[in-house]
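[Automated response] Your request has been received and processed.

Submitted sequence:
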Amino acid sequence: MAVQINPSILSADFARLAEEAEAVQGADFLHVDVMDNHFVPNLTLGVPVVESLARATDTPLDCHLMIEDPDRWAPQYVEAGASSVTFHVEAAAAPVRLAREIRAKGARASMALKPATPIEPFEDLLPELDMLLVMTVEPGFGGQAFLDIMLPKIRRTRELIKKHGLELWLQVDGGVSASTIERCADAGADVFVAGSAVYGAKDPAEAVRALRAQAETATAKASWACDH
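Generated structure:
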């Protein structure tokens, strides 16, 4: 399982987004947090900025929609240039239909779970997805402390993915840093969103490389990866 590092531009300088995208050369995706001040108590950016960012960088965009009514809005982010679109299951009216629409438009379909949302009720949906995001903080703001109590949920999710033999990416987002990424990898995550740990570093590209190395080392020793 290939480790992926997705720097979150929520921690970047919004006045220099094109330059900030270039500053993380070697990243697998750029993670773009879209917040509407309704589903979460914060307001960030929307379709026009994603369109501009997609033109400004060759790094694929991973759009995380923390918004109400993703059934209506998510397809527009694919049209804007996103390569992966994540909707929150708590906000989606018809998650299977939405995942299929995102895929039909040519992007990877991903579903996110807030910390209090269990994975088990959605086991049957997993084959409809390309990625599942387990939030390791409450969505809405960057720079929050990692919630260790999410590690068992990551393990359970990885077990369900293996149970069904799926090639499903398992992403974590929230408080991912040099001090937490190895625990996430050991639990079963293979896609890591890092904001301040990357953009708060003196050399963001080097921070990406260092986080990747840590995650790869932890994954190589992890029981879930060894018997995959």
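Summary generated for your ticket: The chain has a mean pLDDT of 95. The CA atoms of residues 100 and 128 lie 7 Å apart.
If you did not submit this request, please reply to this message.
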